[in-house]
Amino acid sequence: MRPQKIVTNVVFYLAMIFGATVMIFPVIYMFSASLMSRQEIFSTPIKIFPEALRFSNYIEVFTRFNIHMYLNNSIIVAVSVIAISAFTSTLVGYSLAKFQFPGKQFVFYFIIATMMIPFTVIVIPLYLLILKLNWANSYEALIIPSAMTPFGVFLLRQFILDLPDDYIDAARIDGSSEIGIFLKIIMPLSISAISATSIMTFVSNWNSFLWPLIVTSRQRYMTLPLGLAQFLNLYEQEWHLLMTSSVIAVFPVLVIFLLFQRKFIEGMTGMTGLKA
Amino acid sequence: MTINKPKFGYYDYIKLWGLLFCVPGIIFFSIFYVYPIFRAIQISLYKWNILERPVFIGFRNYTQMFTSGEFWNSFLVTFYYVIGVVFPILLFSLPVALMFNRPFRLREGFLAIWYIPVIIPLTVAAILWKLMFNPSFGLLTLITDPLGFKNLRWLNDPALAMPSLIIISIWRSFPYYMVIMLAGLGSIPISYTEAAKVDGASPIQNFLYITLPLLKNVLLYVSIVAVINSFQVFALPYLMTGGGPGSATRLLPYYIYQNAFEYLRMGYASSASLVLMLVLLALTIIQFRIFKDNE
Protein backbone atom coordinates (compact mmCIF):
# COMPACT_ATOMS: atom_id res chain seq x y z
CA MET A 1 0.00 0.00 0.00
CA ARG A 2 1.20 3.49 -0.77
CA PRO A 3 1.92 5.59 2.34
CA GLN A 4 -0.62 8.20 1.21
CA LYS A 5 -3.32 5.57 1.13
CA ILE A 6 -2.39 4.34 4.59
CA VAL A 7 -2.72 7.88 5.96
CA THR A 8 -6.15 8.40 4.40
CA ASN A 9 -7.22 5.05 5.75
CA VAL A 10 -6.10 5.92 9.27
CA VAL A 11 -7.86 9.29 9.10
CA PHE A 12 -10.97 7.58 7.75
CA TYR A 13 -11.14 5.04 10.56
CA LEU A 14 -10.37 7.65 13.21
CA ALA A 15 -13.28 9.75 11.93
CA MET A 16 -15.52 6.66 11.89
CA ILE A 17 -14.57 5.72 15.45
CA PHE A 18 -14.94 9.28 16.70
CA GLY A 19 -18.41 9.59 15.17
CA ALA A 20 -19.48 6.19 16.45
CA THR A 21 -18.29 7.09 19.96
CA VAL A 22 -20.25 10.34 19.99
CA MET A 23 -23.39 8.53 18.81
CA ILE A 24 -23.19 5.51 21.10
CA PHE A 25 -21.68 6.99 24.25
CA PRO A 26 -24.90 8.36 25.79
CA VAL A 27 -26.50 4.94 25.26
CA ILE A 28 -23.60 3.13 26.90
CA TYR A 29 -23.79 5.53 29.80
CA MET A 30 -27.50 4.78 30.15
CA PHE A 31 -26.74 1.07 30.49
CA SER A 32 -23.92 1.64 32.92
CA ALA A 33 -25.89 4.13 35.05
CA SER A 34 -28.71 1.59 35.27
CA LEU A 35 -26.29 -0.61 37.23
CA MET A 36 -25.10 2.12 39.58
CA SER A 37 -26.29 2.92 43.04
CA ARG A 38 -27.94 6.23 43.82
CA GLN A 39 -24.74 7.60 45.38
CA GLU A 40 -22.54 6.52 42.49
CA ILE A 41 -24.41 8.75 40.04
CA PHE A 42 -23.99 11.81 42.27
CA SER A 43 -20.35 11.08 43.05
CA THR A 44 -17.46 13.40 42.20
CA PRO A 45 -15.36 12.84 40.21
CA ILE A 46 -18.03 11.57 37.86
CA LYS A 47 -18.07 7.85 37.28
CA ILE A 48 -18.71 6.48 33.83
CA PHE A 49 -18.84 2.84 34.87
CA PRO A 50 -20.22 1.31 38.07
CA GLU A 51 -17.89 -0.20 40.65
CA ALA A 52 -19.80 -3.45 40.71
CA LEU A 53 -22.62 -4.76 38.55
CA ARG A 54 -25.74 -4.29 40.65
CA PHE A 55 -28.88 -5.70 39.16
CA SER A 56 -31.00 -4.75 42.17
CA ASN A 57 -32.20 -1.62 40.32
CA TYR A 58 -33.96 -3.89 37.86
CA ILE A 59 -35.84 -5.62 40.65
CA GLU A 60 -36.66 -2.29 42.25
CA VAL A 61 -38.31 -0.75 39.15
CA PHE A 62 -40.63 -3.73 38.98
CA THR A 63 -41.55 -3.68 42.67
CA ARG A 64 -41.63 0.10 43.24
CA PHE A 65 -42.42 1.60 39.84
CA ASN A 66 -44.78 -1.15 38.65
CA ILE A 67 -43.06 -0.94 35.32
CA HIS A 68 -44.53 -4.28 34.19
CA MET A 69 -47.98 -2.69 33.95
CA TYR A 70 -46.76 -0.07 31.46
CA LEU A 71 -44.65 -2.66 29.67
CA ASN A 72 -47.66 -4.89 29.36
CA ASN A 73 -49.79 -2.09 27.85
CA SER A 74 -47.06 -1.15 25.39
CA ILE A 75 -46.78 -4.76 24.24
CA ILE A 76 -50.55 -5.21 23.88
CA VAL A 77 -50.85 -2.02 21.85
CA ALA A 78 -47.80 -2.65 19.65
CA VAL A 79 -48.72 -6.26 18.87
CA SER A 80 -52.34 -5.41 18.05
CA VAL A 81 -51.38 -2.50 15.84
CA ILE A 82 -48.87 -4.62 13.94
CA ALA A 83 -51.32 -7.49 13.48
CA ILE A 84 -54.13 -5.26 12.23
CA SER A 85 -52.04 -2.96 10.07
CA ALA A 86 -50.15 -5.81 8.39
CA PHE A 87 -53.50 -7.11 7.20
CA THR A 88 -55.20 -3.82 6.30
CA SER A 89 -52.20 -2.17 4.61
CA THR A 90 -51.60 -5.22 2.44
CA LEU A 91 -55.27 -5.47 1.51
CA VAL A 92 -55.54 -1.84 0.45
CA GLY A 93 -52.09 -1.90 -1.16
CA TYR A 94 -53.11 -5.00 -3.14
CA SER A 95 -56.31 -3.39 -4.32
CA LEU A 96 -54.43 -0.27 -5.50
CA ALA A 97 -51.70 -2.30 -7.18
CA LYS A 98 -53.50 -5.07 -9.01
CA PHE A 99 -57.10 -4.02 -9.70
CA GLN A 100 -58.67 -1.64 -12.18
CA PHE A 101 -61.76 0.15 -10.98
CA PRO A 102 -63.18 3.62 -11.49
CA GLY A 103 -61.73 6.14 -9.03
CA LYS A 104 -58.64 4.07 -8.26
CA GLN A 105 -56.23 6.88 -9.13
CA PHE A 106 -58.22 9.24 -6.97
CA VAL A 107 -58.11 6.89 -3.98
CA PHE A 108 -54.36 6.44 -4.43
CA TYR A 109 -53.64 10.16 -4.44
CA PHE A 110 -56.13 10.65 -1.63
CA ILE A 111 -54.12 8.26 0.57
CA ILE A 112 -50.77 9.74 -0.53
CA ALA A 113 -52.08 13.21 0.32
CA THR A 114 -52.91 12.18 3.88
CA MET A 115 -49.16 11.62 4.40
CA MET A 116 -48.80 15.39 4.32
CA ILE A 117 -51.23 15.98 7.20
CA PRO A 118 -49.32 16.96 10.35
CA PHE A 119 -50.46 15.04 13.42
CA THR A 120 -50.42 18.23 15.49
CA VAL A 121 -53.34 19.54 13.41
CA ILE A 122 -55.61 16.53 13.71
CA VAL A 123 -54.83 15.65 17.32
CA ILE A 124 -57.56 17.85 18.84
CA PRO A 125 -60.40 16.65 16.56
CA LEU A 126 -59.19 13.06 17.01
CA TYR A 127 -59.31 13.47 20.77
CA LEU A 128 -62.86 14.84 20.54
CA LEU A 129 -63.77 11.89 18.32
CA ILE A 130 -62.40 9.48 20.92
CA LEU A 131 -64.45 11.21 23.61
CA LYS A 132 -67.59 10.88 21.49
CA LEU A 133 -66.91 7.19 20.92
CA ASN A 134 -66.38 6.79 24.67
CA TRP A 135 -62.93 5.40 24.06
CA ALA A 136 -60.97 7.58 26.47
CA ASN A 137 -58.84 5.30 28.67
CA SER A 138 -59.16 2.22 26.53
CA TYR A 139 -56.98 0.08 24.30
CA GLU A 140 -59.23 0.97 21.36
CA ALA A 141 -58.12 4.59 21.59
CA LEU A 142 -54.48 3.53 21.53
CA ILE A 143 -54.85 0.93 18.77
CA ILE A 144 -57.54 1.84 16.23
CA PRO A 145 -56.26 5.25 15.01
CA SER A 146 -52.89 3.61 14.27
CA ALA A 147 -54.40 0.58 12.55
CA MET A 148 -53.21 1.73 9.13
CA THR A 149 -50.72 4.33 7.91
CA PRO A 150 -50.61 5.98 4.49
CA PHE A 151 -46.91 5.16 4.35
CA GLY A 152 -47.56 1.46 5.00
CA VAL A 153 -50.22 1.28 2.28
CA PHE A 154 -47.89 3.10 -0.13
CA LEU A 155 -44.94 0.77 0.52
CA LEU A 156 -47.08 -2.36 0.17
CA ARG A 157 -48.64 -1.04 -3.03
CA GLN A 158 -45.20 -0.38 -4.52
CA PHE A 159 -44.07 -3.86 -3.56
CA ILE A 160 -47.15 -5.70 -4.84
CA LEU A 161 -47.00 -3.72 -8.09
CA ASP A 162 -43.79 -5.62 -8.91
CA LEU A 163 -45.29 -9.06 -8.24
CA PRO A 164 -46.11 -10.91 -11.49
CA ASP A 165 -49.80 -11.01 -12.46
CA ASP A 166 -49.45 -14.65 -13.54
CA TYR A 167 -49.79 -15.97 -10.00
CA ILE A 168 -53.11 -14.20 -9.58
CA ASP A 169 -54.43 -15.19 -13.02
CA ALA A 170 -53.42 -18.83 -12.51
CA ALA A 171 -55.20 -18.92 -9.16
CA ARG A 172 -58.34 -17.41 -10.74
CA ILE A 173 -58.32 -20.05 -13.46
CA ASP A 174 -57.98 -22.71 -10.78
CA GLY A 175 -61.18 -21.31 -9.32
CA SER A 176 -59.72 -19.70 -6.23
CA SER A 177 -61.85 -17.01 -4.60
CA GLU A 178 -60.62 -13.41 -4.51
CA ILE A 179 -60.27 -13.53 -0.74
CA GLY A 180 -58.40 -16.81 -1.10
CA ILE A 181 -55.99 -15.22 -3.59
CA PHE A 182 -55.31 -12.39 -1.16
CA LEU A 183 -54.76 -14.64 1.86
CA LYS A 184 -52.94 -17.52 0.21
CA ILE A 185 -50.91 -15.79 -2.52
CA ILE A 186 -50.56 -12.06 -1.96
CA MET A 187 -49.97 -12.11 1.80
CA PRO A 188 -47.24 -14.81 1.71
CA LEU A 189 -45.50 -13.24 -1.30
CA SER A 190 -45.45 -9.82 0.36
CA ILE A 191 -43.95 -11.06 3.59
CA SER A 192 -40.67 -9.18 3.20
CA ALA A 193 -42.42 -5.85 2.59
CA ILE A 194 -44.87 -6.62 5.40
CA SER A 195 -42.05 -7.26 7.84
CA ALA A 196 -40.25 -4.05 6.84
CA THR A 197 -43.39 -1.95 7.37
CA SER A 198 -44.21 -3.85 10.57
CA ILE A 199 -40.84 -2.87 12.02
CA MET A 200 -41.56 0.76 11.17
CA THR A 201 -45.02 0.47 12.73
CA PHE A 202 -43.59 -1.17 15.83
CA VAL A 203 -40.95 1.51 16.42
CA SER A 204 -43.30 4.43 15.89
CA ASN A 205 -45.86 2.84 18.20
CA TRP A 206 -43.40 1.85 20.89
CA ASN A 207 -42.01 5.40 20.93
CA SER A 208 -45.31 7.22 20.55
CA PHE A 209 -45.90 9.79 23.30
CA LEU A 210 -48.31 12.62 22.47
CA TRP A 211 -51.30 10.47 21.51
CA PRO A 212 -51.22 8.13 24.55
CA LEU A 213 -50.64 11.17 26.77
CA ILE A 214 -53.86 12.72 25.53
CA VAL A 215 -56.18 9.71 25.49
CA THR A 216 -55.13 8.05 28.75
CA SER A 217 -55.44 9.50 32.20
CA ARG A 218 -55.66 6.26 34.16
CA GLN A 219 -52.41 4.41 34.83
CA ARG A 220 -54.12 1.15 33.97
CA TYR A 221 -53.94 2.06 30.24
CA MET A 222 -50.70 4.02 30.12
CA THR A 223 -47.91 2.86 27.82
CA LEU A 224 -44.23 2.76 28.70
CA PRO A 225 -43.25 6.26 27.46
CA LEU A 226 -46.00 7.70 29.65
CA GLY A 227 -44.76 5.61 32.55
CA LEU A 228 -41.29 7.06 32.07
CA ALA A 229 -42.70 10.60 32.01
CA GLN A 230 -44.47 9.87 35.30
CA PHE A 231 -41.36 8.43 36.91
CA LEU A 232 -39.45 11.54 35.84
CA ASN A 233 -42.05 13.65 37.65
CA LEU A 234 -42.33 11.57 40.78
CA TYR A 235 -38.79 10.33 41.33
CA GLU A 236 -36.72 13.18 39.94
CA GLN A 237 -33.72 12.48 42.15
CA GLU A 238 -33.59 8.71 41.60
CA TRP A 239 -31.58 8.79 38.43
CA HIS A 240 -30.35 5.21 38.81
CA LEU A 241 -33.93 3.93 38.65
CA LEU A 242 -34.85 6.30 35.83
CA MET A 243 -31.94 4.95 33.81
CA THR A 244 -32.99 1.38 34.58
CA SER A 245 -36.53 2.10 33.36
CA SER A 246 -35.08 3.72 30.25
CA VAL A 247 -33.03 0.62 29.50
CA ILE A 248 -36.15 -1.52 29.83
CA ALA A 249 -37.97 0.78 27.39
CA VAL A 250 -35.14 0.64 24.87
CA PHE A 251 -34.41 -3.06 25.17
CA PRO A 252 -37.13 -4.57 22.91
CA VAL A 253 -36.40 -2.13 20.07
CA LEU A 254 -32.69 -2.64 20.46
CA VAL A 255 -32.97 -6.44 20.27
CA ILE A 256 -35.13 -6.31 17.13
CA PHE A 257 -32.73 -3.80 15.63
CA LEU A 258 -29.65 -5.93 16.27
CA LEU A 259 -31.40 -9.03 14.94
CA PHE A 260 -32.79 -7.51 11.75
CA GLN A 261 -30.50 -4.55 11.19
CA ARG A 262 -30.81 -4.38 7.40
CA LYS A 263 -34.56 -4.96 7.28
CA PHE A 264 -34.96 -2.54 10.16
CA ILE A 265 -33.20 0.36 8.47
CA GLU A 266 -34.99 -0.46 5.23
CA GLY A 267 -38.36 -0.32 6.94
CA MET A 268 -37.73 2.79 8.99
CA THR A 269 -36.36 4.90 6.21
CA GLY A 270 -38.90 3.56 3.73
CA MET A 271 -36.03 2.64 1.43
CA THR A 272 -38.14 -0.05 -0.21
CA GLY A 273 -40.30 2.67 -1.72
CA LEU A 274 -37.69 5.31 -2.29
CA LYS A 275 -36.15 5.51 -5.70
CA ALA A 276 -33.72 8.33 -6.29
CA MET B 1 -84.94 -14.25 -26.96
CA THR B 2 -81.94 -12.45 -28.41
CA ILE B 3 -78.64 -12.87 -26.65
CA ASN B 4 -77.83 -9.72 -24.73
CA LYS B 5 -74.36 -8.75 -23.63
CA PRO B 6 -74.27 -9.69 -19.98
CA LYS B 7 -74.74 -6.63 -17.84
CA PHE B 8 -72.41 -7.83 -15.17
CA GLY B 9 -69.47 -9.81 -16.53
CA TYR B 10 -66.55 -11.59 -14.95
CA TYR B 11 -64.28 -8.53 -15.20
CA ASP B 12 -66.86 -6.39 -13.45
CA TYR B 13 -66.95 -8.98 -10.73
CA ILE B 14 -63.17 -8.67 -10.26
CA LYS B 15 -63.39 -4.87 -10.34
CA LEU B 16 -65.99 -5.04 -7.63
CA TRP B 17 -63.67 -7.09 -5.43
CA GLY B 18 -60.87 -4.58 -6.02
CA LEU B 19 -63.14 -1.78 -4.92
CA LEU B 20 -64.27 -3.81 -1.93
CA PHE B 21 -60.65 -4.41 -0.81
CA CYS B 22 -60.07 -0.69 -1.04
CA VAL B 23 -63.07 0.30 1.08
CA PRO B 24 -61.38 -0.17 4.50
CA GLY B 25 -58.68 2.26 3.40
CA ILE B 26 -61.14 4.85 2.13
CA ILE B 27 -63.17 4.69 5.33
CA PHE B 28 -60.16 4.64 7.64
CA PHE B 29 -58.27 7.57 6.10
CA SER B 30 -61.46 9.59 5.77
CA ILE B 31 -62.31 9.18 9.46
CA PHE B 32 -58.86 9.46 11.02
CA TYR B 33 -57.05 11.84 8.66
CA VAL B 34 -59.35 13.92 6.45
CA TYR B 35 -62.42 14.46 8.61
CA PRO B 36 -60.26 15.84 11.50
CA ILE B 37 -58.86 18.55 9.20
CA PHE B 38 -62.34 19.85 8.40
CA ARG B 39 -63.38 19.46 12.02
CA ALA B 40 -60.32 21.49 13.09
CA ILE B 41 -61.33 24.29 10.72
CA GLN B 42 -64.83 24.21 12.17
CA ILE B 43 -63.69 24.18 15.81
CA SER B 44 -61.29 27.06 15.17
CA LEU B 45 -64.33 29.30 14.64
CA TYR B 46 -65.74 28.53 18.08
CA LYS B 47 -64.92 29.32 21.66
CA TRP B 48 -65.11 25.97 23.39
CA ASN B 49 -63.81 24.44 26.61
CA ILE B 50 -65.38 20.97 26.01
CA LEU B 51 -67.43 21.20 29.23
CA GLU B 52 -69.86 23.84 27.97
CA ARG B 53 -71.59 24.35 24.64
CA PRO B 54 -69.36 25.80 21.91
CA VAL B 55 -70.01 29.46 21.07
CA PHE B 56 -69.53 30.67 17.50
CA ILE B 57 -67.13 33.64 17.44
CA GLY B 58 -66.06 33.81 13.78
CA PHE B 59 -62.41 34.66 13.31
CA ARG B 60 -61.88 35.99 16.82
CA ASN B 61 -59.52 33.13 17.71
CA TYR B 62 -57.31 34.13 14.82
CA THR B 63 -57.27 37.86 15.60
CA GLN B 64 -56.58 37.06 19.23
CA MET B 65 -53.73 34.76 18.22
CA PHE B 66 -52.09 37.21 15.84
CA THR B 67 -52.07 39.87 18.54
CA SER B 68 -50.76 37.52 21.22
CA GLY B 69 -47.11 37.89 22.21
CA GLU B 70 -47.03 34.31 23.48
CA PHE B 71 -48.07 32.96 20.08
CA TRP B 72 -45.45 34.97 18.19
CA ASN B 73 -42.83 33.92 20.70
CA SER B 74 -43.67 30.25 20.07
CA PHE B 75 -43.70 30.89 16.36
CA LEU B 76 -40.21 32.43 16.35
CA VAL B 77 -38.81 29.90 18.82
CA THR B 78 -40.07 27.10 16.56
CA PHE B 79 -38.25 28.62 13.58
CA TYR B 80 -35.11 28.91 15.67
CA TYR B 81 -35.38 25.22 16.55
CA VAL B 82 -36.20 24.03 13.01
CA ILE B 83 -33.36 26.00 11.44
CA GLY B 84 -31.00 24.83 14.19
CA VAL B 85 -31.88 21.19 13.48
CA VAL B 86 -32.40 21.05 9.72
CA PHE B 87 -29.31 22.94 8.52
CA PRO B 88 -26.77 20.83 10.42
CA ILE B 89 -28.61 17.71 9.25
CA LEU B 90 -28.40 18.78 5.61
CA LEU B 91 -24.80 19.82 6.06
CA PHE B 92 -23.49 16.69 7.78
CA SER B 93 -25.59 13.83 6.51
CA LEU B 94 -24.26 13.90 2.95
CA PRO B 95 -20.53 13.81 3.84
CA VAL B 96 -21.14 11.00 6.31
CA ALA B 97 -23.26 9.15 3.75
CA LEU B 98 -20.37 9.51 1.29
CA MET B 99 -18.05 8.00 3.91
CA PHE B 100 -20.36 5.00 4.20
CA ASN B 101 -20.86 4.73 0.45
CA ARG B 102 -17.93 2.42 -0.17
CA PRO B 103 -16.97 -1.00 1.05
CA PHE B 104 -14.69 -1.09 4.09
CA ARG B 105 -14.03 -3.35 7.03
CA LEU B 106 -16.74 -3.36 9.75
CA ARG B 107 -19.00 -1.16 7.61
CA GLU B 108 -22.22 -2.86 8.79
CA GLY B 109 -21.09 -2.66 12.41
CA PHE B 110 -20.29 1.05 12.22
CA LEU B 111 -23.58 1.73 10.46
CA ALA B 112 -25.46 -0.10 13.23
CA ILE B 113 -23.71 1.91 15.94
CA TRP B 114 -24.32 5.22 14.16
CA TYR B 115 -27.98 4.30 13.71
CA ILE B 116 -28.76 3.34 17.32
CA PRO B 117 -29.79 6.86 18.52
CA VAL B 118 -32.61 6.81 15.94
CA ILE B 119 -34.30 3.83 17.54
CA ILE B 120 -34.14 5.29 21.07
CA PRO B 121 -37.63 6.45 22.10
CA LEU B 122 -37.73 10.25 22.37
CA THR B 123 -38.93 9.98 25.97
CA VAL B 124 -35.85 7.92 26.84
CA ALA B 125 -33.58 10.36 24.98
CA ALA B 126 -35.15 13.22 26.94
CA ILE B 127 -34.55 11.56 30.33
CA LEU B 128 -31.05 10.40 29.44
CA TRP B 129 -29.94 13.83 28.24
CA LYS B 130 -31.58 15.54 31.19
CA LEU B 131 -29.17 13.58 33.35
CA MET B 132 -26.24 14.29 31.05
CA PHE B 133 -27.02 18.02 31.03
CA ASN B 134 -27.07 18.19 34.82
CA PRO B 135 -24.76 21.06 35.85
CA SER B 136 -23.19 19.27 38.82
CA PHE B 137 -23.05 15.54 38.04
CA GLY B 138 -24.00 15.34 34.33
CA LEU B 139 -21.64 13.55 32.00
CA LEU B 140 -21.18 16.64 29.82
CA THR B 141 -19.31 18.35 32.66
CA LEU B 142 -16.47 15.95 31.82
CA ILE B 143 -16.10 17.84 28.52
CA THR B 144 -17.14 21.36 29.50
CA ASP B 145 -15.22 21.66 32.80
CA PRO B 146 -11.74 21.14 31.29
CA LEU B 147 -12.68 23.66 28.58
CA GLY B 148 -13.25 26.24 31.30
CA PHE B 149 -17.04 26.35 31.22
CA LYS B 150 -17.90 25.59 34.82
CA ASN B 151 -21.44 25.12 36.00
CA LEU B 152 -23.23 25.37 32.68
CA ARG B 153 -26.93 25.28 33.53
CA TRP B 154 -27.89 23.96 30.13
CA LEU B 155 -31.64 23.51 30.44
CA ASN B 156 -32.17 26.32 32.96
CA ASP B 157 -30.20 28.90 31.03
CA PRO B 158 -32.45 30.93 28.65
CA ALA B 159 -29.63 31.13 26.10
CA LEU B 160 -28.61 27.47 26.28
CA ALA B 161 -31.96 25.69 26.69
CA MET B 162 -32.83 25.75 22.99
CA PRO B 163 -29.33 24.74 21.82
CA SER B 164 -29.59 21.81 24.26
CA LEU B 165 -32.81 20.60 22.64
CA ILE B 166 -31.26 21.11 19.22
CA ILE B 167 -28.22 19.01 20.16
CA ILE B 168 -30.46 16.14 21.27
CA SER B 169 -32.56 16.33 18.11
CA ILE B 170 -29.55 16.30 15.82
CA TRP B 171 -28.03 13.39 17.74
CA ARG B 172 -31.23 11.42 17.51
CA SER B 173 -32.38 12.12 13.96
CA PHE B 174 -29.27 12.82 11.90
CA PRO B 175 -28.39 9.14 11.18
CA TYR B 176 -31.92 8.59 9.89
CA TYR B 177 -31.49 11.20 7.17
CA MET B 178 -27.93 10.03 6.56
CA VAL B 179 -29.21 6.53 5.72
CA ILE B 180 -31.79 7.97 3.31
CA MET B 181 -28.96 9.82 1.54
CA LEU B 182 -26.96 6.60 1.54
CA ALA B 183 -29.84 4.86 -0.23
CA GLY B 184 -29.89 7.70 -2.74
CA LEU B 185 -26.16 7.39 -3.34
CA GLY B 186 -26.54 3.64 -3.78
CA SER B 187 -29.07 4.14 -6.56
CA ILE B 188 -26.62 6.16 -8.70
CA PRO B 189 -25.16 3.76 -11.29
CA ILE B 190 -21.42 3.29 -10.75
CA SER B 191 -20.91 3.49 -14.53
CA TYR B 192 -21.66 7.24 -14.44
CA THR B 193 -18.91 8.13 -12.02
CA GLU B 194 -16.55 5.59 -13.58
CA ALA B 195 -17.08 7.12 -17.01
CA ALA B 196 -16.35 10.59 -15.65
CA LYS B 197 -13.20 9.28 -14.00
CA VAL B 198 -12.02 7.86 -17.33
CA ASP B 199 -12.68 11.27 -18.90
CA GLY B 200 -10.33 12.76 -16.32
CA ALA B 201 -12.78 14.23 -13.78
CA SER B 202 -11.34 14.83 -10.32
CA PRO B 203 -13.24 13.35 -7.34
CA ILE B 204 -14.50 16.84 -6.49
CA GLN B 205 -15.73 17.48 -10.03
CA ASN B 206 -17.27 14.04 -10.00
CA PHE B 207 -19.18 14.90 -6.83
CA LEU B 208 -20.26 18.39 -7.93
CA TYR B 209 -21.33 17.60 -11.49
CA ILE B 210 -22.54 14.01 -11.27
CA THR B 211 -23.40 12.88 -7.76
CA LEU B 212 -24.97 16.10 -6.47
CA PRO B 213 -27.34 16.73 -9.42
CA LEU B 214 -28.46 13.10 -9.38
CA LEU B 215 -29.06 13.33 -5.67
CA LYS B 216 -31.25 16.41 -5.89
CA ASN B 217 -34.54 14.59 -5.38
CA VAL B 218 -33.20 12.81 -2.32
CA LEU B 219 -31.92 16.09 -0.87
CA LEU B 220 -35.32 17.65 -1.49
CA TYR B 221 -37.03 14.70 0.20
CA VAL B 222 -34.71 14.87 3.20
CA SER B 223 -35.10 18.60 3.69
CA ILE B 224 -38.90 18.44 3.40
CA VAL B 225 -39.23 15.50 5.79
CA ALA B 226 -36.74 17.01 8.24
CA VAL B 227 -38.64 20.31 8.32
CA ILE B 228 -42.01 18.58 8.77
CA ASN B 229 -40.68 16.32 11.52
CA SER B 230 -38.84 18.98 13.47
CA PHE B 231 -41.84 21.31 13.32
CA GLN B 232 -43.78 18.73 15.31
CA VAL B 233 -41.44 17.90 18.17
CA PHE B 234 -43.45 17.77 21.37
CA ALA B 235 -41.87 15.38 23.87
CA LEU B 236 -38.58 17.28 24.24
CA PRO B 237 -39.94 20.58 25.58
CA TYR B 238 -42.67 18.75 27.49
CA LEU B 239 -40.27 16.48 29.37
CA MET B 240 -37.10 18.54 29.56
CA THR B 241 -37.94 22.19 29.99
CA GLY B 242 -41.69 22.60 30.33
CA GLY B 243 -41.35 25.28 27.65
CA GLY B 244 -38.96 27.24 29.83
CA PRO B 245 -36.99 28.90 31.13
CA GLY B 246 -39.63 31.58 30.66
CA SER B 247 -40.97 30.71 27.23
CA ALA B 248 -37.61 30.08 25.60
CA THR B 249 -38.47 26.55 24.44
CA ARG B 250 -42.26 26.76 24.12
CA LEU B 251 -42.35 25.22 20.64
CA LEU B 252 -45.63 25.49 18.72
CA PRO B 253 -46.81 21.88 19.26
CA TYR B 254 -46.31 22.34 23.00
CA TYR B 255 -48.07 25.71 22.88
CA ILE B 256 -50.99 24.06 21.08
CA TYR B 257 -51.04 21.18 23.57
CA GLN B 258 -51.07 23.53 26.55
CA ASN B 259 -53.89 25.64 25.13
CA ALA B 260 -55.98 22.61 24.22
CA PHE B 261 -55.42 20.24 27.10
CA GLU B 262 -54.30 22.42 30.00
CA TYR B 263 -56.32 25.61 29.46
CA LEU B 264 -59.10 23.80 27.54
CA ARG B 265 -59.15 26.39 24.74
CA MET B 266 -60.07 23.97 21.94
CA GLY B 267 -61.00 26.63 19.38
CA TYR B 268 -57.91 28.73 19.97
CA ALA B 269 -55.59 25.70 19.90
CA SER B 270 -57.20 24.48 16.66
CA SER B 271 -56.63 27.80 14.96
CA ALA B 272 -52.97 27.75 16.04
CA SER B 273 -52.62 24.20 14.69
CA LEU B 274 -54.08 25.24 11.34
CA VAL B 275 -51.57 28.08 11.13
CA LEU B 276 -48.86 25.50 11.76
CA MET B 277 -50.19 23.41 8.89
CA LEU B 278 -50.27 26.38 6.51
CA VAL B 279 -46.71 27.31 7.46
CA LEU B 280 -45.58 23.74 6.76
CA LEU B 281 -47.40 23.77 3.43
CA ALA B 282 -45.76 27.08 2.48
CA LEU B 283 -42.31 25.84 3.51
CA THR B 284 -42.78 22.65 1.47
CA ILE B 285 -43.72 24.66 -1.62
CA ILE B 286 -40.76 27.02 -1.08
CA GLN B 287 -38.37 24.08 -0.83
CA PHE B 288 -39.76 22.62 -4.06
CA ARG B 289 -39.18 26.00 -5.73
CA ILE B 290 -35.61 26.31 -4.49
CA PHE B 291 -34.68 22.85 -5.72
CA LYS B 292 -36.42 23.27 -9.07
CA ASP B 293 -34.95 26.73 -9.72
CA ASN B 294 -31.46 25.34 -9.49
CA GLU B 295 -32.19 23.04 -12.39
What key phrases describe this protein's structure?
heterodimer, A: 276 residues, MetI-like fold, B: 295 residues, mainly alpha, 2 domains, two-stranded antiparallel ribbon
Describe the protein.
The complex is a heterodimer of chains A (276) and B (295). By secondary structure, chain A is mainly α. Chain A has 15 helices and no strands. With 295 residues, chain B is mainly alpha-helical. At the A-B interface, α1, α4, α5, α6 and α11 of A face α1, α4, α5, α7 and α10 of B.
Short recap of the structure:
Chain A has helices spanning 3-33, 38-42, 56-63, 67-98, 104-114, 119-132, 139-143, 150-161, 165-173, 178-189, 191-207, 210-215, 224-234, 239-259, 261-269. With 276 residues, chain A is mainly α.
Helix and strand content put the structural class of chain A at mainly alpha
CATH fold label of chain A? MetI-like fold
Find the biggest chain interface.
A-B, 88 and 91 residues
- Biggest sheet, spatial arrangement of strands of chain B: 1-2
Overall tally of domains of chain A: 1
According to CATH, the homologous superfamily of the largest domain in chain B is MetI-like
Structural class of chain B: mainly alpha
Overall geometry of chain B comes to: flat
What is the total tally of β strands of chain B?
2
Radius of gyration of chain A: 24 Å
The average pLDDT score of chain B comes to: 90
CATH fold description of the largest domain in chain B: MetI-like fold
* Largest sheet data of chain B: 2 strands, antiparallel
Give the overall shape of chain A: globular
- Beta-strand level of the residues of chain B, as a percent range? under 5%
